[in-house]
Amino acid sequence: MKVFLAGFILIFIGMLILMIAGLMGGISQSFGLVVFVGPIPIILGSGKYSLLAILLALILTVLGIIMFIFLRKQHF
């Protein structure tokens, strides 16, 4: 339950930061997305900084998987 709450709080803080950045200076229209369907990753991106956004999304996804495996081993 604590991990779920921590994840929810981090997502909420990230959304707030994005909203504030959009209001203060405008956000470029670039995005990156990594979706795992089983073991197969689907990588999407668009815009001027799409490569950077895709790399960041991929790194965060890999870190999330590593944390999931690490935390799962601690409970058993």
Structure description:
With 76 residues, this protein is of the alpha+beta class. The protein has one domain (2-74). It contains 2 helices and 2 strands. The protein has a two-stranded antiparallel ribbon with strand order 1-2. It is flat and about 45 Å long. The protein starts with a helix and ends with a helix.
Question: Which key phrases capture this entry?
Answer:
single chain; 76 residues; alpha+beta; two-stranded antiparallel sheet; 64% helix
Give the number of domains.
1
- Spans where pLDDT lies below 50 across 5 or more residues: none
Give the biggest beta sheet.
2 strands, antiparallel
Strand order of the largest sheet: 1-2
Compressed to H and E, one letter per element, the order equals HEEH
Strand content: 15-25%
What is the quaternary state of this protein? single chain
**Span between N and C termini?**
16 Å
Number of helices: 2
The total strand number stands at 2
Helix-strand category:
alpha+beta
Bin the helical content: 55-70%
Determine the mean pLDDT.
Answer: 76
Radius of gyration: 15 Å
Quickly describe the structure:
By secondary structure, this protein is an alpha+beta fold. It has one domain (2-74).
Task: Detail the topology: elements first, then pairings.
Blueprint (H helix, E strand, L loop, with lengths): L1 H24 L5 E7 L2 E7 L3 H25 L2
Antiparallel strand pairs: 1-2
